[in-house]
Amino acid sequence: MKTLIGWGYCLLKTDWREIWRLSNAARGDGGFARLGVLSDLMVSTLYYKISPSEYFYFCFHGMGKEDRLDWAGTTAMWMAQRRFVPKKIIPTFSSKQRFRVKFDHLMAEHLGVVSWPYSDDSIVKRLLSQGGTSWFFKPEDGQCGAGGFIIEVGGLTVDEVHDKLRRKLRSGRKYIVERTLINHEALRAVNPSCLNTVRVVTYTDGQEVEVLFSRVRFGNGEDVDNLSLGGYAAEVDSDTGRVMGEAVNTSSGVAEYCDKHPISGIRFDGIEIPHWDGVIQLAKSAALVEPRASIVGWDVAVTNSGVYLVEGNHNWGKLLWQLPVRKGLRSDLDRYIERIDHAR
Fold first, then answer.
1. In this model, does residue 66 exceed pLDDT 70?
2. On the chain, which terminus has fewer CB atoms closer than 10 Å, C or N?
3. Which of 169, 181, 168 is nearest to 135 (CA)?
4. Which residues lie across from 179 on neighbouring strands?
5. Which residue intervals define the domain Alpha-L-glutamate ligase-related protein ATP-grasp in the entry (predicted)?
6. Using the 8-state DSSP alphabet, how is residue 65 labeled?
7. C-alpha angle with apex 225: 240 to 90, nearest 5 degrees?
């Protein structure tokens, strides 16, 4: 039943116009006509527990049946991650406001929550009085960086800030207001348009914490670094903090790899994440704040002055996990599940 629910969810959320375009582009890769691609796609979404878009991200149209079993798609990840993080504590991670309450001591300064319309301008006056000129507004219920934006308030009046918020905020939606973090110069040199973050995925039994894997994301001229919004992602050696190999981008609807950042021209391979010991220690500290969540992906900001927790992800991303290493990691997911079952 869960497989069918996940399958239906994937089909419902699919941009079928984009799938039609990708099917046309993929016709020659697997020896199919376009309708053949679509037919194979529909069977694959149910049998391999993937979404239609993942059929192209994972390059299933050019892959044998046995190799397809290696990949973990949306439905398989959803079913596994529900076991890693109990349903009753998922809101701790899905709600930015609840997350702030529990993990505030590991995060950077924030001013509270704002929405439009609002009844007073106290938070606007606080924005102007704090001494910082740049603030990040993050949707309280946002996912994958969508809807976040930065407002520069330096030199503005209260009325001018109100006007900016009126144009940016979506009516009725809540936003967490945080001081904009500036990357360490080594990461900012790669991409200065946004905060480039590290994701560290940890496992805990409530006593000890183990790092399972690490990835780094770089923006591509936008306000956020997410893969889903045009960013780049690469593997990081969890022991050393060194970036491994090329970075992946999925903005075309398929996985494309690049050895250099297209804006700065800096090679991804060999970049060393500053304050790496601090990154790992922060992720391990976060994992013990809510030990009932066995496996969580922690997003960490690295600045010149140190490291800050940005958010925790109970759904830590099948694309960010697998695409940077160019292979399916379904067997690793199965091992994680076995480990959880054994611990319980």
1. yes
2. N
3. 181
4. 135
5. 173-334
6. H
7. 85
Looking at 72-86, 133-147, 170-184, which range is the least confident one? 133-147
Q: 244, 235 in Cβ contact below 8 A?
A: yes
Beta bridge partners of 302: 307
> What pLDDT does residue 342 have?
81
C-alpha 221/C-alpha 240 separation (Å) is 28
Query: Is the dihedral angle over the CA atoms 65, 70, 74, 79 positive or is it negative?
Result: positive
Residue for token digits 């809510």?
A: 290
- pLDDT (tens digit per residue) in 192-241: 999 999 999 999 999 999 999 999 999 999 878 989 889 999 999 999 99
Determine which of 69-73, 96-100, 249-253, 288-292 has the lowest per-residue pLDDT on average.
96-100
Distance CA 256, CA 246 (A): 10
Token duo for residue 264:
């700065």
CATH architecture assigned to 109-179? 2-Layer Sandwich (3.30)
**Which of 318, 339, 336 is CA-nearest to residue 327?**
318
Q: And the tokens for 204?
A: 């805990």
* pTM of the full structure: 0.87
Q: What is the pLDDT of the chain when averaged over all its residues?
A: 88
By the 8 A CB rule, do 321 and 329 touch? yes
CATH class of 85-102+183-343: alpha beta
Backbone angles phi, psi at 153, to 5 degrees: -105, -5
pLDDT at 172 over 80: no
Please give the helix or strand (H or E) that residue 311 lies within, else none. Answer: strand 306-313
| Burial class for 88, CB neighbours closer than 10 Å (0-12, 13-18, 19+) | exposed
Radius of gyration of the chain (CA): 21
Q: Give yes or no on whether 85-102+183-343 and 109-179 have one common fold.
A: no
Domains in the chain: boundaries: 2-69, 85-102+183-343, 109-179
Whether pLDDT at 33 is above 70: no
What's CA 227's distance to the chain center, in Å?
7
